[in-house]
């Protein structure tokens, strides 16, 4: 009985509940203490699982935005922009309503009305615009017409759409680098572009040429701004905003002369199209200062459109090595005169000579019999120049080669410069260097060496940069010309120039075709063999590097012009030298007329002014204004408002430049009769129309009639013919 009572007592539910309640109180107290301790710890440390809560809240409500620095502008010698920053816009129409809400529609709702508005600002007809706006796509772009839009046009479109309460048109902004002259020393100027797909990062990086070499100077330094937002994304008023303003990049002014550069590009472009050489280089340098006045190459590319860039990224001025051939005889001659081994009226037997286990031949293997060394110079006899280095001694000749800087970089302000090579091995190779074989050089090295002849025995360092300008402080870093002495004297340099006139004006001279009317020049041609894949020299056909160097005026040289053409298709030319003449003669004549104080060519007696911004002005008022000013212009379109122009606003405009103006509405084709090829190519670039050009000279006929409607998909063919 007692045991039963004890069990009943132990199983008392009220007593069990008491124990359970105590246990729960203890558990809750421990839990509360744990939570309190955790909160206390978080309040003290501000961290959860290693993450800083204050920092996270700060990030949640704080906007930190990079303020992009403007990239510096690159100018030519006269202050005209060659490379500049530009904000461009691409127009997109949203056709689907899947991203819209009833309160905030962002798609095209009234395509007819939108097309009517857009036609007032774009060079596209209302019908074509409507066709695009009613396509079965989620969104649509507008081809060439809808790309690279200016801020003025975008603002005008947005204002008209807002006033008409129309939706569905958006604009994608892109910061880009503008090269307003198109093909203009493109590999030398280089390229700057975005190196990331991040839409927030609009910074540009130099990837080629001067843009790469001076990237740090041009880039400047980005700034930033930091401010607080509320949970709805609105900026909190009356807050302290932290801000560091960006420092814009510095500007660079070059030595390039825009007028000579444009002329050179035009001539080289024509020759390259006719003869399609593997490589063509042409560089005009001031003989006394080393300033590069104009330089180009083929293949090349358009810096703005990037057309042609896939052909090569190499700058042939500094990244192209080749055997220079007989232009090296200019320097061999100078060294021989200095060492007293060149006796112009002594005779030797031309044709061939045995040396170092090999044979050196003249271009005419049987030779011209016994001739004087002066005639040997005129005829470009290899044997004559082997005699010179034999007599002065190979070691002495090597010292001269070293003093001319071969095998050494010039230090010109361009990336990836090659140093060339002069192995100077056996006697045969040493002898071959006297006429430019067995030694590899770059065009800029040859220009530096040639300057010793025009500058009294001292080489001037070729350079492209005139000065660096800090816009904010106004400070300028001027790049001065520098000289390096060689082993030849002032008297030797003058004598060399005099002898080199024989190649131009002698009846047997190899450079007779390079004479420039009205000026006395010294010149030397070159025809260098090329090494094939098997390591042997190629022969036959046009497997050569044809070249010429001209220095003028002889009495006091101001200019050095050096042209190389590798493996051209002759297309009726009797010799590769005739292809080189097509570049050298017109450019050297124009340059001499321009830079000569005594005979200034009337073509250069032009006035230059800044191009006015004509965008969004009425077509009729612009026509009257340009007609009154006597300007050459063409209207592309029949609309009442100008929407695009070439040249761009604030660029340099000469009396002879053609102004091209696109109106709103559909594009119409101007009468191209008499247009030069360069203007036809600009028209193609402006309109996006594909152009096929046949012949040389000026436009004689066109397959599409004047004033006919054209679109970017149109194909235009023009026939050129000579026109005095």
From TrEMBL:
<dbReference type="InterPro" id="IPR005543">
    <property type="entry name" value="PASTA_dom"/>
</dbReference>
<feature type="domain" description="PASTA">
    <location>
        <begin position="663"/>
        <end position="722"/>
    </location>
</feature>
<dbReference type="GO" id="GO:0005886">
    <property type="term" value="C:plasma membrane"/>
</dbReference>
<dbReference type="GO" id="GO:0071555">
    <property type="term" value="P:cell wall organization"/>
</dbReference>
<comment type="similarity">
    <text>Belongs to the transpeptidase family.</text>
</comment>
<dbReference type="GO" id="GO:0008658">
    <property type="term" value="F:penicillin binding"/>
</dbReference>
<dbReference type="Pfam" id="PF03793">
    <property type="entry name" value="PASTA"/>
</dbReference>
<protein>
    <submittedName>
        <fullName>Penicillin-binding protein 2B</fullName>
    </submittedName>
</protein>
<keyword id="KW-0812">Transmembrane</keyword>
<dbReference type="InterPro" id="IPR012338">
    <property type="entry name" value="Beta-lactam/transpept-like"/>
</dbReference>
<dbReference type="Pfam" id="PF00905">
    <property type="entry name" value="Transpeptidase"/>
</dbReference>
<feature type="transmembrane region" description="Helical">
    <location>
        <begin position="20"/>
        <end position="44"/>
    </location>
</feature>
<keyword id="KW-1133">Transmembrane helix</keyword>
<dbReference type="InterPro" id="IPR050515">
    <property type="entry name" value="Beta-lactam/transpept"/>
</dbReference>
<keyword id="KW-0472">Membrane</keyword>
<dbReference type="InterPro" id="IPR001460">
    <property type="entry name" value="PCN-bd_Tpept"/>
</dbReference>
<dbReference type="InterPro" id="IPR005311">
    <property type="entry name" value="PBP_dimer"/>
</dbReference>
<dbReference type="Pfam" id="PF03717">
    <property type="entry name" value="PBP_dimer"/>
</dbReference>
<dbReference type="InterPro" id="IPR036138">
    <property type="entry name" value="PBP_dimer_sf"/>
</dbReference>
